[in-house]
Write a structure and sequence with these properties.
alpha/beta, 13 helices, 19% strand
Length: 417
Amino acid sequence: MEKTVIELFAGVGGFRVGLNNIQSFDENGKAIENRNWNFVWANQWEPGTKTQHAYDCYIKRFGNECSNEDISKVNRQSIPNHNLLCGGFPCQDYSVARSLSNEKGIEGKKGVLFWDIADILKIKQTPFFLLENVDRLLKSPSKQRGRDFGIMLRTLHDLGYNVEWRIINAADYGFAQRRRRTFIFGWKRTSNYNKDVYQKDVLSFIYKNGLFAQCFPVEQFDKNRDTVNEIDLLRYLDTVEMTSVFKAKFENSGFMINGSVTTLKTFPIYEDPVTLGQIREEKSGLNKYILSGDKKEKFYYLRGAKKILRHKPNGEPYYYSEGSMSPFDSLDLPGRTMLTSEGSINRSTHIIPDKETGNLRILTPIEAERLQGFPDDWTNTGMPENRRYFMMGNALVTNIINRLEPRLSSIFENEIE
């Protein structure tokens, strides 16, 4: 099977960097792609932003295969045929309601990007997909735990897919950031790969034979520790019924086969992570990132313990409390989860000692890129520095995709066109 790919919500190209093992770019700024995944189309559009920095970066590094249009308005038939759809999408409310004719479900909220993914999968009949989302996806919404993920899985079943998922903390497997994300791999039930799934029991796929188990090993099943949870999604008429009544406990690993879900908590086989000290720039002249007296005091306050009197909208008083953090991040540990506010005066911003001076400073944009596994200066395409940090806070750890690639490639090689 040809390794043709589309990348949705592409940002600055994280899936492409990972799949094609991109480590540098040429003198013209074009990415040097070291594998043969053919990205035939991408879409990146940032609503409410006049200057489309992420799109501009994607074009600079890859060329003109990227669309800069609201994905909900893209003509599905105009999207090139492809064999893998990939993308990271926001965690949103996936509730479903009946149409006026009472015949089928419609999305309860507009702008929920999962429905665009589902629509493209339906129209283009994509054989495989690989998606990324925050770890709380499995528990949302808070008042009906698991409903949204259950609706997603049922929707994918109805479209003809089986699915595997895993929450992966990048630092558990040797990478430079403690970032937990849900990865979802799906395949058509008509695929050759699906025949392999049927030849083995589901637990063997979760622990040994599945995509995630082969690339990110876990401790083997322990009957005294591991509780297996089975969920039958087909007992519900449709996703409309699920919206009002469904709730379930989805663990960090699981499979859905023919609408039947097996989920349980797995434990990673830990690998020594890359540390902040190892990704720290060691060159001189980083004075602009060093904290001045005023900024240093603000960070000391933000990272310190506090108890602040506040008032609810009705005037009722309450105390907002935060525990203390270290005044700076340890160079002997991987980075914390990087947010889009990285680099700003914010409690979540990383603070490290400068190699040359020993003074405390924020990360450089290059260090932020290294936390996500991008080549140095990947986002140095003319956008302001604060947007470079934003792009990395929005990105995924490309090393995870890079590590999945060999097994994905072998799956594609075993498919028949």
